[in-house]
């Protein structure tokens, strides 16, 4: 079963996403701030991380860079979830270490496609 680490601090969104992802057969683990996300990634070794960029304690930008710098988490695909939808924001999240970018509000079917693509890329790499 594919394990997804969802790092999101807004209860409505993590509740919505985790329920829908579980219904699709994913094993979902949750973290509610960036530091907890980094710790959970190291402990759980998920197949993919959905990372909000606007988080308390440690923001998503720092969390992504931290995950990329650690040998045990460097290859886990990360999809940034962000309300930042300005031009250039996609490049900023890629530079921070994310593999892809999904603007909020979440388009669930598009997000599923991005998850599939990231997982396939991970298998090839």
| Overall body shape | globular
The biggest beta sheet, please? 5 strands, parallel
Would you tell me the overall average pLDDT? 92
Number of helices: 5
- Which spans have pLDDT < 50 for at least 5 consecutive residues? none
Q: What proportion of the residues is helical, as a percent range?
A: 40-55%
Keywords:
125 residues; alpha/beta; 5-stranded parallel sheet; 47% helix
Structural overview:
This protein has 125 residues and is an alpha/beta fold. It is built from five helices and five strands. A five-stranded parallel beta sheet has the order 2-1-3-4-5, with helices on both faces. Helix 3 links the parallel strand 3 and strand 4 (78-82). The mean pLDDT is 92. Residues 3-119 form the Response regulatory domain.
SSE diagram, text form:
Layout: E1 3-7, H1 11-23, E2 27-31, H2 34-44, E3 48-52, H3 60-69, E4 78-82, H4 89-96, E5 100-103, H5 108-124
Parallel strand pairs: 1-2, 1-3, 3-4, 4-5
Helix pairs in contact: 2-3
Pfam family, one: Response_reg
Domain Response regulatory: 3-119
Keywords: Phosphoprotein, Two-component regulatory system
Please outline what is shown here.
The chain has 125 residues and is an alpha/beta fold.
């Amino acid at each position: 079963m594919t394990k997804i680490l969802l790092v999101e601090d807004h209860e409505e969104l993590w509740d919505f996403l985790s329920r829908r992802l579980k219904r699709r057969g994913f094993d979902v683990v949750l973290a509610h701030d960036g530091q907890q996300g980094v710790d959970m990634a190291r402990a759980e070794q998920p197949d993919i991380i959905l990372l909000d960029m606007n988080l308390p304690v440690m923001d998503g930008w720092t969390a992504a860079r931290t995950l990329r710098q650690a040998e045990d988490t460097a290859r886990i695909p990360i999809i940034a979830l962000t309300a930042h939808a300005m031009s250039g924001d996609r490049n900023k999240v890629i530079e921070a270490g994310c593999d892809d970018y999904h603007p909020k509000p979440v388009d669930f079917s598009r997000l599923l496609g991005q998850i599939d693509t990231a997982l396939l890329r991970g298998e090839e790499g």
